[in-house]
Amino acid sequence: MADLRVNIAGVEWSNPVTTASGTFGFGREYAEYFDLSNLGAVCLKALSAKPRLGNRSPRIAEVNDGILNSVGLQNPGAQHFIDNELEWLRQFDTKIIANLCGSTVEDYVEVAEILGDKVDMFELNISCPNVKEGGMAFGTDPKMIEDITSRVKAASKVPLIVKLSPNVTDITEMAKAAEAGGADAVSLINTLLGMKIDIKTRKPVLYNNMGGLSGPAVMPVAVRMVYQVRRAVKLPIIGMGGIATGEDAIEFLLAGADAVAVGTAGIVDPYAWIKVRSGINDYLDRNGYNSVKDIVGKVDING
User: Fold this and answer.
1) Is 202 part of any domain?
2) What pTM does this model have?
3) Residue 84 has what pLDDT?
4) Which residue in 203, 264, 286, 294 has the most C-beta neighbors within 10 A?
5) Three-state DSSP class for residue 35
6) pLDDT: is 1 or 217 the higher one?
7) Mean pLDDT over residues 65-92, rounded?
8) What is the chain's percent helix, strand, coil content, to nearest 5?
9) What is the arithmetic mean of pLDDT over 168-175?
């Protein structure tokens, strides 16, 4: 059996599979189906310094090969997580990644300080709108990315992953900005901005009109962006976007991802994470590889 261990910014995972934030809650629902110790890491739903109610319904819409969501980062707040979820999660032999969200740089710093070193890693959700900049998402401007990364990194007691938004002209510039700001790793992609209209009412299906598209429909874009970022920065990469099978995950690894996150597929099949992990292992064994690290970035480009 191949060695599935990976090292992400100094944190060793037992295998390269984690959960995509926003699709796994705090893990209690999925623990009814499988032992969470089977995952290299669990990335939690977004946490803010104070509780967030999220957006009004309807905020989920099914589309061809994916879903649109505008949940709005609803969560009970970082302290509630510490008091009510952390001890339960610690029973599993897996790494815990807290996804940080906020509306200002100060919000992000505050939630990082509240969590301290109680989790293994942070993932910085820079797709949040910056209220001090008129609602522009942090992740669409390189200067903002570098600034917020450096500020949160200074307050962080654990390695910091920066989650990149695909809703930009050049993803490599955003990755370089995160690296310049002191990020320990990057994850990509977050959801693509999309819209669905009810032709009977002539109104958008989502109350917020637009939402984030995830699922198989975004995978070719995600693979392309991982490939580009691998050639732009030296940071570890967690690839995500439409992964549903081991074969999907292999594409990301070949493109340059060091690990992968599964999200929307788990909503359809609660065993998706386990199947992806097994699929990676089967591919490595069939092709005579000793370690998952042997295929990272090994795509054979034409020309």
Assistant:
1) no
2) 0.96
3) 98
4) 264
5) coil
6) 217
7) 95
8) 35, 20, 45
9) 97
First to last CA, the chain: 34
Side chain identity, residue 234 = K
Listed residue (144, 96, 104) closest to 122, CA to CA: 96
**Of the candidates 234, 133, 132, 226, which has an alpha carbon nearest to the alpha carbon of residue 179?**
234
User: How wide is the angle at C-alpha 152 spanned by C-alphas 14 and 23, nearest 5°?
Assistant: 50
Dump pLDDT digits (tens) for 206-247: 999 999 999 999 999 999 999 999 999 999 999 999 999 999
Cα separation of 18 and 277, whole Å? 9
Q: What pLDDT was estimated at residue 129?
A: 66
Q: Strand, helix or coil at 221?
A: helix
Tokens of 242: 């439409």
Instruction: Indicate if the pLDDT at residue 136 is higher than 80.
Output: no
Question: What residue numbers bound the domain in which 86 lies?
Answer: 6-54+73-190+215-295
- Number of helical (H) and strand (E) elements in the chain, helices listed first: 9, 16
What's the distance, CA 55 to chain centroid? 20
Contact 41, 260 (CB under 8 A): no
Number of domains in the chain: 1
In a domain, residue 210? The reply is no
Residues recognised as catalytic? 128
Largest CA distance in the chain: 56
CA 254 to CA 267: how far, in whole Å? Answer: 26
Which residues lie across from 161 on neighbouring strands?
Answer: 123, 185
